[in-house]
Here is the input.
Amino acid sequence: MKGRARSSSVRRVGGKRSFAVALVVASLVAAPRSLAAGWLPHPADATWTYQWTDSVYSTTPTTEKVTVKDTKGGTFTLAWTTVGLNNPVDAVSTTGQVSFQETNTGLVNTDWTSNAPPTSWPVLCGTSVSCPNSLSSTYYNVIWGSRSPVLAEPLLKGTTWPGAGGAQGDVSASSTYLGDEQVTVPAFSGPVTAAKVRSTITQAGALGDPYGSGTRTIWWVYGVGPVKIEFQHAGGSGAAVTTVMLQSTNQTPQPPPSDVDYFPLTKGQTLTYSWTNTKHLAQPEVERFTTDAVANGSARFTVKSVSGPIKVAGTYGFSKRLDGITNLWGTTQSATKLKFPPLGPKSAAAADRNHIVTPFDLMTFGFNPIIQAYAVKGATWPADPASHDFAVYGVTGTTLVLGVQKVTVPAGTFQALAVRTTLVQAGFPYGSGTRTSWFAPGRGLVKLVFAHGDHSVSTVELTK
Here is the structure.
């Protein structure tokens, strides 16, 4: 094909950035939501009554009431007490409060305070003097070892996250979302759907070892909060087990959002794509993407040419947050004899404008998010003219979730989420048009069709 070789660099979010920096930036934005929604709602009048026991240290059930002490947007404090609940004289007496912040990566515990635990309980510090750690309440069992986040979001299939806790940060946890499960607790007349989260917790150096270590399972109900906890403490055959059950609440269970992961960030995953354009790329360009680094809900993909008329290598960064799957950056170096139509925006110097040289360039072109975290049919979002995306691309338009569709590509047949975006890049027909992307559970992008404004069509398919 006639033409001269060309090298290009595609930049995204200010150009090339380190993976560590991208992680920090992606974690700062808080996600707004209704006070009555989410995995831990906090309207001012919300109340929960729990009952818990410890099979070794507190066999008499303790009932405690939890209320909302204060709330301001995504930050709130819950208070609990055992006073006035007709507890037996040998039940644990406990009062305290625990503070949270809702962030774009999940629910974070920011502070806690309470009276001291019973003196007969294990000491959860390296010294018994002024030890601020305790497990003698419902919410201490919730935040133990996993304060940031307490519960990661978006909560999708396969989600795992590390955590730390304790006053000195000496408690570590590895948490895994195990999926939905029907659970029965006294607060509701029948079974309710709960998200089941299991944490392996380790504490070293405490006088009470191994009580601070073990396996904790929490059942979270959307619109209610935690409804059941089982903490199997480490030790021998007589190891303690803490059990917490929700007895009553004025909050109503709601259907949880879909936990299908349409854009997995799995280290070591490889995706091979073939793409063509009816006018500008007749010979298929085949490229392989590998997820080579994953941390805290963000990932770095590398791309390399397999075959075709474009020689390309580069990296892309993505984050998975409550506001969706977001492209953080993209940097490529390419060479080809092909001549593609120019792209904008007009505000950028010609040498600084983007080039489409990979399937991910086609997928990310325009504006974020690529797809929502909890995508539902009919959902829509527009480009933001005040955003950094607009400064990079100069693209206006709207994205619409079409719903799940059957799609067949060389890699197989999938029930994939179809997402359609209309794009207008003023003065640049190739940067305008209609793009439809199909995302399959556990695989990510499996097909893309971009009908450009210059009457050419780019088609991307997953081959393996």
About this structure: The chain has two domains: 6-28+260-462, 47-249.
